[in-house]
Write a structure and sequence with these properties.
By secondary structure, the protein is α+β, with helices and mostly antiparallel strands. Helix content is about 50%, strand content about 15%. The chain is built from eleven helices and five strands; from the N terminus they run H-H-E-E-H-H-E-H-H-E-E-H-H-H-H-H. It has helices at about 10-15, 25-35, 65-75, 80-90, 100-105, 105-115, 150-175, 185-195, 200-210, 215-225, 230-240; strands at about 40-50, 55-60, 95, 120-125, 135-140. It has a five-stranded antiparallel β-sheet, with helices on both faces. Strand 1 and strand 2 (about 55-60) form a beta hairpin.
């Protein structure tokens, strides 16, 4: 069980388990196991992709209580939910708090969610350069605000999970949309990503490869652009999925 303060190595090992998923069911089961090991009880994934005809395609995968999901859909809460609004516009994690729902005039939504045990959580989004988006919400019945250290630890895990979840969910749930061709990375770009996967900082990578920290950052930035990623974690998730790094 993952209870220690997260290190980069732990985060990347956690991420790697999702890439072994064979299908949608296997993926969901693996993700739920990770979510529960991290201290949450359930999750919901929202995907937004552009179909070949140009239209937007949406998909939701959830382990929330079925009655709450039904009520949420019937009352069209997605149009009001401040976590959804936030994730449409930002990739910064949002730790749920009553004030967020109060400011959005959505206290009824929160109170009803709490009655089903969906009381506290973290929501984080991934936005691709291509326009693909995903949202991962991790929920539980226990507050995240009593222990700042735990809140920070779980927020870090949510960031990592969102990147690996995004890559695998889009591949397994929408295989017909297809994946872009794997770009050719240079040896230096691949090596930098490989060391990053082992938890090394750009300065440490530079020391290992006998290059400057700025050059390391340059190679990582190039890898991000070639892979269509908006940050290093997303680039690593894509590289791991496509077998560029292990």
């Amino acid at each position: 069980m993952l209870t220690a303060e997260p290190s980069s190595v732990q985060e990347f090992q956690l991420m790697a388990t999702l890439f072994e998923a064979k299908d949608k069911v296997d993926f969901s089961q693996r993700l739920l196991k990770i979510v529960q090991c991290c201290g949450f009880e359930s999750f919901v994934i929202g995907l937004e992709l552009k179909a070949p005809n140009g239209g937007l395609v949406h998909h939701v995968t959830s382990t929330y209580p079925p009655l709450w999901r039904q009520l949420y859909d019937e009352r069209q809460y997605a149009a009001l939910d401040p976590t959804v609004r936030h994730c449409q516009a930002s990739t910064e994690p949002m730790v749920w708090h009553e004030q967020i729902f109060f400011d959005a005039d959505c206290m009824t939504l929160l109170e009803e969610a709490q009655s089903y045990g969906v009381s506290h959580g973290i929501s984080v989004a991934v936005h691709e350069r291509s326009g693909r988006k995903s949202m991962l919400s991790l929920a539980r019945d226990k507050s995240l605000w009593h222990d700042p250290g735990e809140k920070n630890r779980l927020t870090a895990y949510a960031r990592v999970l969102s990147s690996s979840m995004h890559v695998m969910a889009t591949r397994l749930i929408f295989p017909e949309i297809g994946q872009p061709e794997t770009p050719a990375l240079t040896t230096q770009e691949t090596q930098c990503l490989q060391w990053f996967a082992h938890g090394k900082t750009p300065w440490e990578i530079g020391e290992i490869m006998k290059i400057s920290e700025a050059t390391t950052a340059f190679y990582l930035e190039n890898a991000m652009k070639k892979l269509g990623a908006v940050n290093r974690l997303q680039a690593l998730a894509i590289a791991m999925d496509r077998g560029i790094v292990d």
